[in-house]
Amino acid sequence: MARRSLSPEEQALWAALTRSVKPIRAAPRLPVPAAAPMKQPVEPRRLTPSPDLPFVPQAARSPATILDSGWERRIRSGNLVPDMTIDLHGHTLASAHARLGQALALGLAQGARILLVITGKPPKTRASGGTPRRGAIRGEIGHWLETGAHADRIASVRAAHPRHGGDGALYVILRRSR
Length: 178
What we know:
four-stranded mixed sheet; alpha+beta; Ribosomal Protein S8, Chain: A, domain 1
């Protein structure tokens, strides 16, 4: 497409416009303040525990394992509808631990009773004769739930029904808030 030339009227209008334009003046540059002198690093102090206060580890609170027969029947038949689902599959241990804590806090705040936690099924390997190994997240999740901030609010932890992920998922059943 060829560019057209300006008509005499357009040329006069363009010339009047360019005469009225003023160039932008650059703002004067402010001087950069001098850097503050570096302070001497503080010597690290060694803290030694007081001998009169022995270390007492906090006992791990484990979620209850007993549910009534109605819950057991619903779990076996798969007639549970999770109130909330969290997928930890593919996460690192650190991010999975953080997400689990956030999901438990959110579930408790929303009044959820059943949390479906997907950990992912570990692959079957030929080296182990085709027997499944336990995944890293699945291996740690019990400890996280026992020692977490919400351990006293967990009624039970059970393997999920195949419809909800089977060996690769867990039901975390939360206590009712009273």
